[in-house]
Amino acid sequence: MTGKGALGVARKTRSLVFGACTAAIALATTPAIAGGLYLSEIGSPSSLSTASSGSVTSNKLADSAWTNPAGMTGIDRTEMLTGLQVLIPNIKFKSTVADAGGVDGGNAGAVAAIPTFFYVRPLNERWRFGLSMVAPFGAGIDFGDNFVGRYAVQEITLQAIALSPSFGYKVNDRVSIGFGASITYSLMEMDVAINQSAVAAPDGQVKLEDATDLGVQPFVGLQWQYSDDGVFGLVYRAEMDVDLEGDLRIIDLALPLTPQSKFKFAWDNAQLLEIGIRHRLSDVWTLTANADWEDWSAFSQNLLSINDAPTGPVVITIDRKWKDTYKFGIGLTRTLSNGTKLGFGAAYDSSPVDNVDRTVDLPVDEQIRLSIGWGHNTDGRKSWGIGATLLLLGDGKVDQVAGGERFAGKFDKNYILFVGAMFRRHFGH
């Protein structure tokens, strides 16, 4: 072959390798949350004991600074609520097709501890100020380097923390409104393999590192006490743009290629509308129920751009074919004579994606939550609580081609156990 011909082959091969690389990135560069993007578990009594069915009508605890700022008007003294929840996942993929060989990866979940903080301060008879810190979404998945779907994803970590100032205003004795904004910092890192079988070489690897973004998500709330025994609540959270920017490193390639680039990845986190009621059935029992709509069809379009690629600027739009989701939850709280409370709850979330369109980097399916919690008021100023939620994440069936290789299967075990403890403190009289 002439030098000119060899050069042409090399260029073509580099383009093919880079094309496979960017396709792999496009399929994998999104938050790998095994059961959904928004977490309703925020380490508070209402989220961990009643499957979050009582969050939107919370008006006696400082977690309302996040769950519904209108509820802060029910708090007459400065209050602080802190929590710590531990996530214990069991996420195991079982393959039925693995054209490229490999292993199923064992338990891909990672144990994580997440602290939360809520603060409410009365400003006058009508106004309340609140401040909250929660992790609204985030996860870690590690299938290992030799995973059957390694050309889609090997390992991914997403961490997000939201600091949210908010205000509540008491319109009258029955109606309150509230508003706030979540300032959310996101960090993502990911590894994905590159298939180099076309040049008879072992797998290469793409590493996405230090991809960060700072976004803002406004929210508003309403509470209406429709009777002495009942409260109706409503919360709307606006859409939030996520624009991650980070470093892209390519290693172990058979042919020379620019080893490092900058990349950008963008999507829209869904707007959300939630409604709920809390109704006292008797001196002992209280019922909570909620429902929500989440606009995950807006998330479906993911945009990847690499400006300094060796083959020229690259812009790829991926349509994940996601659709809107719906949630329904119900809970019961029993108040005992000594002030101790027991809570129970269950909730169902629909899947945002059909089985045929699901990808292993984001294997979201329908979800079922089962919760139980206990709380005790010690002296009128302090109270404690513990709670647990079992989040069942569905089968997550996948049949996908990545790096030119097909793999298929489902998650044989797919759940997360949330265990949390809370402490509440009043200040002033």
Account of the 3D structure:
- The chain has a single domain (3-427), classed as Porin (Beta Barrel), CATH 2.40.160.60.
- It has 429 residues and is mainly beta.
- Strand 15 and strand 16 form a beta hairpin.
- It starts with a helix and ends with a strand.
- The chain contains three helices and 20 strands.
- The longest helix is centred in the first third of the chain and has 26 residues, at 3-28.
- It has a 14-stranded antiparallel beta barrel.
Can you lay out the helices and strands and say which pair or pack?
Blueprint: H1 3-28, H2 45-49, H3 64-67, E1 78-98, E2 112-122, E3 127-134, E4 139-142, E5 155-170, E6 175-194, E7 204-224, E8 230-237, E9 240-251, E10 260-269, E11 272-280, E12 285-294, E13 301-306, E14 314-319, E15 325-335, E16 341-349, E17 367-377, E18 382-392, E19 398-402, E20 405-427
Antiparallel strand pairs: 1-2, 1-20, 2-3, 3-5, 4-5, 5-6, 6-7, 7-8, 7-9, 8-11, 9-10, 10-13, 11-12, 12-15, 13-14, 15-16, 16-17, 17-18, 18-20, 19-20
